[in-house]
Amino acid sequence: MNTTVVTVDKEHPDAKVMEEAGRVLKEGGLVAFPTETVYGLGGDGLNPDSSRKIYQAKGRPSDNPLIIHIADMESLDKIVKAIPLKARKMAEAFWPGPLTMIFEKSSVVPYETTGGLESVAVRMPSHPVAAALIRAGGGYVAAPSANTSGRPSPTRASHVREDLEGKIDMIIDGGSVGIGLESTIVDFTEDEPVILRPGYINQEMMEDVIGQVKVDRGLLITDENVRPKAPGMKYRHYAPQASLTIVEGKAEDTIAYINTQCAKLKAEGKGAGVIATDETRGSYQAAVVKSIGTRRDEEGIARHLFGILREFDEEKVDAIFSESFDTPKMGQAIMNRLLKAAGHHIIRL
Ligand code: AMP
Ligand code: MG
């Protein structure tokens, strides 16, 4: 398949391009597009064939449901059975934005889109290109992250091209994304709202709006046998080709530990890489040292994480060590992704 790649202005995407992209979606094709979180791989969420194509292009297991993206509140009524009051308040506070909510689905939503579930995940993105595409494409765009299943989510169009060029109809290049980690997912199908995936919108921000919000037990426990509630969270994800180990501890202890490990690997003729920060990058003796940014800017750390994991796949290293980033606001989201990338391999000093 020939994949058309078009570049648009992030704030004011060309109307003709968006119209064409919308036509592709309405005809059952697939279009990758930027959102404020990561790049999405869009298809018509109400068309079962489109959803099947999404799974195929990504190599994604078909029991891992897709998020339907909408552009206005009116669109929500058609795809859900009911909107709980707390969910409505959350929508008022955080939509459009990086928040996904789970509802009981209505009959118009095909099981192909929900991975066979009776519930549906819905998000209203704030990115102007995403909003324009949803409107042009009929109002309901099913879109998982636009990466090959298992690889880090794409934060720029070149990442999408690496994974999906030749497999989808179109890629809309709107530059780098703002947040860099996928949306927060909150389940509203139980009595109490539950966070299924941490993201930029954190527990405290939500509790300020609706009171108590629980966190899915499967997210907190690093035991592979406790199943997370969001089907996608059980899959190994984001993993670079080299083995990844997270090292948690005081800066000087972390540096000493990682340098010792790197020296051992070097003696065995193996190359090591380090995910460092601007503050520590000069202290490592490893073949490849990459800074994820400064610790003073946790949003920057979040934005660079997936890109840096992809960059390591270009390097000839056998093992990667990463510092730990338990930062105040986005720490839970950052560490959730990093732990998955590391297959939960963490050394606590
Ligand atoms: P992605 O689109 O790649 O960001 O992945 C979407 C995530 O949303 C996956 O982890 C899914 O398991 C989760 N998800 C989507 N729909 C539902 C649902 N109905 N119930 C629970 N989790 C869902
Ligand atoms: Mg994904």
Structural class: alpha/beta
> What's the pLDDT, averaged over the residues?
95
Unique bound compounds: adenosine monophosphate, magnesium ion
- Termini separation comes to 50 Å
Indicate the low-confidence ranges by residue numbers: none
| Number of continuous helical runs | 12
Listing every helix as H and every strand as E from the N terminus to the C terminus, the arrangement reads: EHEEHEHHEHEHEHEEEHEHEHEEHEHE
Tally of DSSP β-strands:
16
Spatial extent as radius of gyration: 20 Å
Give the overall silhouette.
globular
Measured as a percent range, the helix fraction is: 25-40%
SS strand fraction = 15-25%
**How many strands, what sense, and barrel or not for the largest sheet?**
11 strands, mixed
Strand order of the largest sheet: 1-8-2-3-7-4-6-5-9-10-11
Secondary structure layout:
Layout: E1 4-7, H1 15-26, E2 31-33, E3 40-44, H2 48-58, E4 67-69, H3 74-79, H4 85-94, E5 99-104, H5 111-114, E6 119-123, H6 128-136, E7 141-142, H7 157-164, E8 170-173, E9 184-187, E10 194-197, H8 203-210, E11 214-215, H9 217-220, E12 243-248, H10 251-267, E13 272-276, E14 288-291, H11 298-312, E15 319-323, H12 331-341, E16 346-348
Parallel strand pairs: 1-8, 2-8, 4-6, 5-9, 10-11, 12-15, 12-16, 13-14, 13-15
Antiparallel strand pairs: 2-3, 3-7, 4-7, 5-6, 9-10
Helix pairs in contact: 1-6, 11-12
Magnesium ion binds at residues 144-145, 153.
